[in-house]
Amino acid sequence: MADDYLFKYSSSAHSMTARPPLNAASASQNDRYQLAIASFGPDIARFAMGYERDGAKRQELVALLVCAGFAHYLWAFPDPLMRAGSLLSILGTLVVVWQLRRRASSRPRPGVESALPSRDFHRAELIRQRDALRSVWLWYVAPLVPGMVVFRLGVNANPDPSLPFARGWAADGFIAGVVLLVILINLYGAHKLQRQIDQLDQVNA
Q1: What Å distances lie between residue 5 and 14, 72, 115, 148, CA to CA?
Q2: How far is residue 170's CA from residue 172's CA, in Å, rounded to a whole number?
Q3: What are phi and psi for residue 50, nearest 5 degrees?
Q4: Residue 150, SS3?
Q5: N or C, which terminus of the chain has less Cβ within 10 Å?
Q6: Cα–Cα distance between 79 and 77 in angstroms, integer?
Q7: Are 111 and 32 in contact (CB under 8 A)?
Q8: 78-118 confidence digits (pLDDT tens)
């Protein structure tokens, strides 16, 4: 689910980069700002233009599959810890989907009549996405941790050899490593967004 932070190129970014090239020497400050935006348009489109319709459908599909899987575990495994972990995982997944819609959903670009300049809108979108990526450990990872921990406790404590799950510290360490990797990838994305914000601020200075 974290991969969907790499948002697709939006039509607004296309319209922005399709404008005739400006002469940097004679361009106004606003035009220079637009040139700076266009110079890394794909990244803005992927991070700042938001969580679009296709991304929303993918997230909802993944959430549906995750919830269906853990709902099956509720029925298939009588172990109380595994059942509790499955229920917590379903609830955590729903929280993550809600947070994605709240924090990463795309916002409509201001119209001509809007008092918010296009450059300010794009900068605000970059800041919003940067903050979302920086705090992904809190709103994306944390809701899933209780279910994972309780479920793994149930797996490790269950002596049934027919369980289709790996046991032991190696399996638990691998899961923890994946979680850490998700956090680091998003922090790197936030760092890239901060660099773009700094570029826009230099143009605006």
Answers
A1: 19, 29, 28, 23
A2: 5
A3: 100, -175
A4: helix
A5: C
A6: 6
A7: no
A8: 999 999 999 999 999 999 999 988 886 666 666 554 545 67
